[in-house]
Design a protein that fits this description.
The protein is an all-alpha fold. The chain is built from four helices and no strands. 78% of the residues lie in helices and 0% in strands.
Length: 79
């Protein structure tokens, strides 16, 4: 039995969306782990900038994560 092309497209879009959410969650966890290793348990301020950090390219973000202080990171990713 063949499914309609529209259904096929919707199914593919849903699968891609799920993959993208999974990648974003993995990236969030990796960044959070690095922050915790450097600064201890994440507080409200670090959790607040985490969402903004995951949107930056790794090539830009990783040097900042290892070089900047906690305060510099918070200043670098304002609301």
């Amino acid at each position: 039995m063949r499914l309609s092309p529209l259904f096929d497209q919707q199914l593919e879009a849903a699968q891609l969306s799920g993959l993208e959410r999974g990648r974003e969650q993995e990236r969030r966890e990796a960044i959070a782990s690095l922050l915790e290793a450097r600064f201890g348990p994440l507080d409200d301020e670090l959790n607040a900038i985490l969402d903004r950090m995951i949107r930056r390219p790794s090539s830009e973000l990783m040097p900042l994560l290892v070089q900047l202080s906690r305060e510099e990171l918070i200043d670098r990713f304002p609301e």
